[in-house]
Amino acid sequence: MGYRVAVVGATGAVGRELLKTLAQRDFPATDVVALASGRSAGSQVSFGDDKVLTVQNLETFDFKGIDIGLFSPGASVSAVHAPRAAAAGCVVIDNTSHFRMEPDIPLVVPEVNPGALKGFAKRNIIANPNCSTIQMVVALKPLHAIARIKRVVVSTYQSVSGAGKEGMDELYTQSKGSFVNDLPTPEQFTKPIAFNCIPHIDKFMEDGSTKEEWKMVAETKKILDPDIAVIATCVRVPVFVGHAEAVHVEFEGPITVSEALAALRKAPGVAVVDRREDGGYITQVEAAGEDEVFVSRMRKDTTVPHGLAFWCVSDNLRKGAALNAVQIAETLIAQGHLAKQAA
């Protein structure tokens, strides 16, 4: 039994990763269509080791007969075309921020809240969470199950690929230019990103938080537990791929380091690399291209009665975007939601 799949935004960094992930996981697709804006129509993208897809125009594409749409074209584009695809019978899994906080649209991380998928049919749209939220809740879920979480304080160290290909190009150009005294004017970021850290991702809000920080708060509550208090500081760092997070968790009751590590080692999607020695932890460079959420440096937080601190790293283009979306599609199939739509 196979499915017809459309990848929307196929020429972008996440779109290409979606195509790569579908092929690597041998997703049961009888047909895969690559879609992008009119200016990219006619170009070609790779699918698997030996296939090339010709990009079609999203604006004129008819979604009738498409079973699954994996969307990553930008929020304003999804706002227009995701409902159009959903109305044609295509189940949309949207990677943009546009639908995430709408109450009748599930916001899903399969390892954390797969049961939320039961409500997808109301609008035929499922939202993929923010990349930084996904890796954090994957690590928090097994801990929340054994000792309820009261509060989370997180600082993120987010790679430039979170801003797309343009962000990666800017880091490369600025890094190269810095060695010949020719540092270009920042365009994608508010300050130079080469050899720098910028505590500003997305727009500023009235309370002084950025939209990225607000997303981590609101999405964690929707996915994991509305009673968890979250405060985030999100920082863009000069790394091409991979997000890292320093996470401090306050629990309602006692939990030991060994209990936490044991729970994480059993958890799906988590890899624990925690050796108290030089190099006994995972960094962004090592996480790039990997599927897991890596947890390292687990230790007791003595500033609160019941606290732990840990380091969390994941590939933001894979688990933070493409992989999570494909896993949602796989979960829909496993739960029997798409059986009737298969070709």
Summarize this entry quickly.
With 343 residues, the protein is of the alpha/beta class. The protein is 29% helix and 24% strand. The protein has eight helices and 14 strands.
The CATH superfamily of the largest domain turns out to be Dihydrodipicolinate Reductase, domain 2
CATH architecture of the largest domain: 2-Layer Sandwich
Number of helices: 8
Kindly state the percentage of residues in helix.
Answer: 25-40%
Q: What descriptors fit this protein?
A:
globular; six-stranded mixed beta sheet; six-stranded parallel beta sheet; Rossmann fold; 8 helices; 2 domains; Dihydrodipicolinate Reductase, domain 2; 343 residues
Structural overview:
The chain is an alpha/beta fold and 343 residues long. It has helices at residues 13-24, 75-87, 131-146, 165-178, 211-223, 257-266, 284-287, 318-334, and strands spanning 3-8, 29-36, 44-47, 51-54, 56-57, 68-71, 91-94, 125-127, 149-158, 229-236, 243-251, 270-272, 293-300, 307-314. Helix 7 (284-287) links the parallel strand 12 and strand 13. 29% of the residues lie in helices and 24% in strands. The model has no long low-confidence stretch (mean pLDDT 96). Helix 3 (131-146) crosses helix 6. It has two domains: 3-128 and 321-341, Rossmann fold (3-Layer(aba) Sandwich), CATH 3.40.50.720; 132-316, Dihydrodipicolinate Reductase, domain 2 (2-Layer Sandwich), CATH 3.30.360.10. The strands form three sheets. Strands 5-2-1-6-7-8 form a six-stranded parallel β-sheet, with helices on both faces. The protein has a six-stranded mixed β-sheet with strand order 10-9-11-14-13-12. The chain has a two-stranded antiparallel ribbon with strand order 3-4. The N and C termini lie close together (7 Å). It is built from eight helices and 14 strands.
